[in-house]
Amino acid sequence: MGSMDYDNDKKPREQQIRKSRTMLLLLVLTNAASILIFSGAGAALHAHVRRHYPAVVHAWGSAKLLRELNVTGLALAASHAEVVDLSERLTAANKVMETILGGKAAKHDMEAAREEQREAAAGGLWQRDRDQDLGGELKLAVGPHRLPHRRLMIGGAGGGGGGDAVMFPALGQACHRYRDELERYMNYTVGGECPSDEVSTQRLMLKGCEPLPRRRCRPPTPAGYVEPTPLPESLWAIPPDTSIVWDAYTCKSYGCLVNRGKAKGSYDCKDCFDLRGREKGRWVRRPGEKADDERNSLDYTIDGVLGLLPKGSVRIGLDIGGGSGTFAARMRERGVTVVTTSMNFNGPFNSFIASRGLVPMHLSVASRLPFFDGTLDVVHSMHVLSSWIPDAMLESALFDVYRVLRPGGVFWLDHFFCLGTQLDATYLPMFDRIGFKKLRWHAGRKLDRGIHMDEWYISALLQKPRR
User: What is the residue range of the signal peptide feature (predicted)?
Assistant: First the structure.
């Protein structure tokens, strides 16, 4: 929305407010003058007559004059009473009028302020300069959009909560900082095929432009697509290469991803696609291992955790940063539905999770969890929620985990990484502030780079109190 339109819309509002205030001032002055004339002057005349023509005239005065003066005095006294009553009525009327006009002016001022805020948000925040407006699909993505049926709004659903007849599309806070990149993202043929831009799209998300705006185009469909493997075989099956589009990734097949764990180089979740390798043994007891063996270990098992809780009480949950979805797969085998958040760091993690018959969610750790308060039985996070996140953001994320857990729900903190100096000074007080009850808590050294690095892991089961 351009600034010129904004100024032109603002002038009629200001003129209308000035006219209302002028009318109110004239009305008050007119009423005041009337009261002054009738009450002040009438009272003075009455006093003058009473002073020079007393109601009781001596017998030596003219009888006719006496009657006329008595009649005049009585008439003036009655007129004074009427003027006083009229003055009181005018005062009450003035107060009512001031209340009405004042309320309308205040309401008008509030509506004008809200309109200015809307226009500033839609125009000023996104405007490079005062002469350049948003255009095309980006303008639609930013909004606002007027609701077609104001009466159908439910609970102030129009964004302002107070009956605003507009709706803003959901858009990440930092999107306006990367307008050039966002304009490229929104540059497509409406109704056509979306550009193959997964890498730049995810880069925008990681910069804080999350959620991204919706687009009116269709993502490309892989050639030769085949139906997915049915459950439960799909939990441990590698999907066919024709199930996705490979443009965004270094590997161009699942066979390449499976063998990436043996190749040189550093990748996120390097061996997560090898379902017959280390993934197969995650969160389960090894042959011959007993439940007592994990009580003093950082490596909790799913059966060990579920055994601490009332039978059947864990039904739905969330795995934050769940890689290729193996935690959710193991929980699925035990009748528990787990949603897995994951990013596609040089690999189709979300598509792979879905191919296993599980629910993926393309969401970064900076986002508010899209679940209502007190709804989940369990939240799990391995490695992702750790000391690499700024303290303020990490504490907010932990409070968000607390929020979505039901009373009695459990947060499974799996191998939280930190330095020894941070453990007591920063993270123990932080977890105490959240308010969890510790069911289990283990801290152990991370020794792969040497004891001198003072690196630690924390594994814990933290329960939301039932109070």
Answer: none
